[in-house]
Amino acid sequence: MYKIISEAKKSLARVGKLSGRHSAETPFFMPVATKASVKQLSAEDLTSMNVPALISNSFLLSLKPGTTIIKKMGGIHNFMNYHGMTFTDSGGFQMLNAQFLLKNEEEGVTFKSPYDGRKLFITPEDVMRIEEDIKPDVAMMLDNLPPHGSTREEVLVSVNRTKAWAERCMKSHKDSKQLLFGITQGSVYKDLRTKSTRDIVTLDPDGIALGGLCIGETQQQMFDVISLSKKIIPTEKPVYLMGVGSPHDIIECVHMGVDVFDSRFATRNARHGTLFTRKGNLMIDRKEFVHDEGPIDPTCSCFVCKNYSRAYIQFQLKQKEAVGMRLASYHNVWFITKFMEDIRTSIREGEFLKFRRDFLKKYRVNKVRGPFEYSQNLRKTFK
Ligand SMILES: [Zn+2]
Fold first, then answer.
1. Separation of 249 CA from ligand 1 center, angstroms?
2. Is 23 left (phi over 0), alpha (psi -120 to 50) or beta?
3. Angle at which helices 247-255 and 322-348 pack, to 10 degrees?
4. Closest to 142 measured CA to CA, from 157, 156, 161
5. Angle at alpha carbon of residue 117, lines to 116 and 122, rounded to 5°
6. What is the phi-psi region of residue 276: left when phi exceeds 0, alpha when psi lies from -120 to 50, beta otherwise?
7. Any catalytic annotation for residue 89?
8. Residues around the ion ligand 1 (C-beta < 5 A)
9. 297: Cβ contacts below 8 Å, ≥ 6 apart
10. Pairing between strand 101-104 and 109-112?
């Protein structure tokens, strides 16, 4: 169930409450917990930061450790000891990985197992059964994802298959307490994206995810797809933009009416020394920080910024020590969680546009280094 609580003026930003077995206020950001853990962070860490939701991967969990143990423990919440809202992705995204995709057919997908190379055939009905066993609050349908740069004809095949699979998912999903989100495709072709959005909206799922973005298209192309999709999706449906997680992208997408985000951005970049601050991204490995006793971000109130210096975090990361990766990951996830809280507060208080303006004025998008570049924000899975 989704209920809109507050709407911004002169903007499509809104605060809402998404409720399954657990609930969370939107807009929110989900750290990625592919294998039922956010890398370097425990469930206690996530709880201490008030992380409202996370996303795991049902397809990979079904291979290892398998659904039996997760089902026996009552679902993913008990299994990982996290009691916020959980989503699971279906495996559609794994289709982008040519190393693992063997065949993409009308009936289902054939994968090569990333663990032991064995051949796996998976259908939309299988995906629903797996997600019912793993029991996240929100199950994602199996979509058919074409790689960026596919021809119009290829994208049309994917759009039609996504529709057929969504119909099969709706039909075979039996858990009435679990929310089910549909995913739209269509790449950046406006007519195909329109068709796919209409196809999915017609099925009336609990929420609509915009899939197939952030895989190599330009930021403007992504914004155009969001804007077009929002015109078709009924206002009362939550909108989830898959794979977007940089603060400057998030604030623009919230402005365009997106409610839910996920990305491995915050944790992966932390491990590589790229840290969020209110002034933009800080590359902690730079020479200037070798003797810097200050915190990552002086305005941040996380335990890392209260207790540790840039010099120490840089040294630990350079030594590839787990503690360095943990401190960096904790700060980044805290930063983005707090950022989303501030966005929600600003919407509630009728100050969203001012908040956005002030944020963007201070936030310098770093164009120099690789990992933070929009076009490289690929959701590489199987790793
Ligand atoms: Zn911090």
1. 20
2. beta
3. 20
4. 161
5. 105
6. beta
7. yes
8. 300, 302, 304-305, 331
9. 275, 276, 277, 278, 279, 282, 305, 331, 335
10. antiparallel
By DSSP bridging, strand 274-277 and strand 280-283 are antiparallel
Amino acid at residue number 383 = K
Quote the tokens at residue 248.
């400057």
- For residue 353, count CB atoms less than 10 angstroms from its CB and return exposed for 0-12, middle for 13-18, buried for 19 or more: middle
pLDDT computed for residue 93 by the predictor? 76
79 and 54 Cβ atoms separated by less than 8 Å: no
292 labelled catalytic: no
pLDDT, tens digit (0-9, with 9 covering 90-100), for 111-143:
888 889 899 999 999 999 999 999 999 999 999
CA of 2 relative to ligand 1 center, distance in Å? 31
Residues 6+ apart with CB under 8 A from 90: 58, 59, 127, 131, 139, 140, 141, 142, 143
Between β-strands 85-89 and 138-140, what pairing exists: parallel, antiparallel or unpaired? parallel
Catalytic residue among 133, 249, 259, 262: 262
Peptide bond into 124 cis (omega under 30): no
CA of 222 to the centre of ligand 1 (A): 30
Q: Inter-axis angle of helices 152-172 and 124-134, to 10 degrees?
A: 50
Taking only the tens place, the pLDDT of each residue in 21-64 is 999 999 999 999 999 999 999 999 999 999 999 999 999 999 99
C-alpha of residue 167 to centroid of ligand 1, in Å: 44
Which DSSP helix (H) or strand (E) runs through 2?
strand 2-7
On whether the CB atoms of residues 302 and 278 are closer than 8 A, the answer is: no
